[in-house]
Amino acid sequence: MATLPGTQTTQITSGLRDAPVEGDYTPKFRKTKFKCPRCPVIAAQTWTVPYKKEHKQFNQKLVALDEQISDLGISQCVACGGRSLWFEGTLVYPSQSGDHPIPQDLPPQLQKDFEEAAAVAAASPRAAAALLRMCIEGLCKFAAQKDNFNDAVYELEKQGVPTQITVAMDVVRMTGNEALHASRLYGTDDATTVSILFRLANSIVQWAITDKKQLEGLVAEIGSERFAKNAAARQRNAEKAARAGS
After folding, report:
1. Which residue pairs, CB below 8 angstroms and at least 24 apart, start in 168-171?
2. Is the Cα dihedral 91, 94, 99, 101 positive or negative?
3. CB count, 10 Å around CB of 26?
4. Distance between CA atoms of residues 113 and 119, nearest Å
């Protein structure tokens, strides 16, 4: 009987404590997974590739030929459904939004202003700033459920918006009025101003929409009745402590 060779055992670690290795998810032509130019999510991408149809004559007969246009295509993000246009293998729309991804909870009716601002930010900071001011004004009205920008800012202040955001919104409101009364784009806007406006828009979305939505989810998990009961008890204890200390 043949003797089987002995089994050699090697030891390896689980790898659970190894540092994670980040992949390259830069948007690239025909790549099937990357960081979406329309949203901040790394997601699978589907591609639509155009064909050129023409007829050529072979043996005195016209034959239809389909030729794939190899350097033109449209990618669609599986996560957000947004489409991006590629020409000659290069992303042409949205052109700059990879640097300024649309906040995930930005209301759909305001996304176009934000997206267009991102697309023109490098070429025309003044145009980008004007679009962002419109976006921020609409965002404040949406968050406060007010039709007037000033009323919306005051309402957000009553809701406890951080002072830094309030001051920044005041700047947007004042410079926007100056631009409107002068019938021109606000002349001193530059890349720094645009960067501030992008960050302000993101901060408002985070505070007024995203954080509140997460807290509402927390309340729902706890149970609204139980949450209200415990909140009332905490309020009574606070009032009792205040009376005892006075």
Report:
1. 168/196, 168/200, 168/203, 169/136, 169/140, 169/200, 169/204
2. negative
3. 9
4. 10
In angstroms, how far is CA 74 from the centroid of its own chain?
A: 20
- Residue that the structure tokens 């290795």 belong to: 21
Residue 38 to residue 103: CA distance in whole angstroms? 10
Q: Tell me the pTM.
A: 0.60
> How far apart, in whole angstroms, are the C-alpha atoms of residue 106 and residue 114?
9
What pLDDT digit, counting tens, does each position of 176-220 carry?
A: 555 444 444 445 678 888 888 999 999 999 999 999 888 888 888
> pLDDT tens across 41-90, in order?
899 999 998 887 777 777 777 666 777 888 899 999 999 898 999 988 88
CA separation for the pair 99, 40 (Å, rounded): 10
Q: Rounded to an integer, what is the distance from CA 221 to the centroid of its chain?
A: 26
Pairing of strands 42-48, 90-93: unpaired
Q: How far apart are CA 74 and CA 90, in angstroms?
A: 11
> Is the bond preceding 162 in cis, omega lying within 30 degrees of 0?
no
Tokens 């350097």 locate to 71
